[in-house]
């Protein structure tokens, strides 16, 4: 048995009626904002199983792909060995390995719309970075 206050029912059903009128002009975002006064944090968002599963699937798949660096000369493309490739794929010089680094970067991109990492340079030598 569900217990709702009369005010909640009136507000809820009033909003539903507004949604289904042809000229309401309401967007889904407005309705959700009106019905929910709570902010959604990353933790709450990831508690939704379909969101968490989707983010993990996408970030895990992308993180498992190796990053390669290519050089183009005269129309010919060849892969080259570079220390930056090792930093991105194997050891980041921090507490994360290459997979975890890429996964964290993609997670931030999916959840916040952007993902950044810090490159620790001393006299133009790269010592590793962190997310």
TrEMBL record:
InterPro entries the record matches: Phage/GTA_portal
Top-level taxon: Bacteria
Pfam families: Phage_portal
Name listed for the protein in its UniProt record: Phage portal protein
Protein's organism: Clostridium puniceum
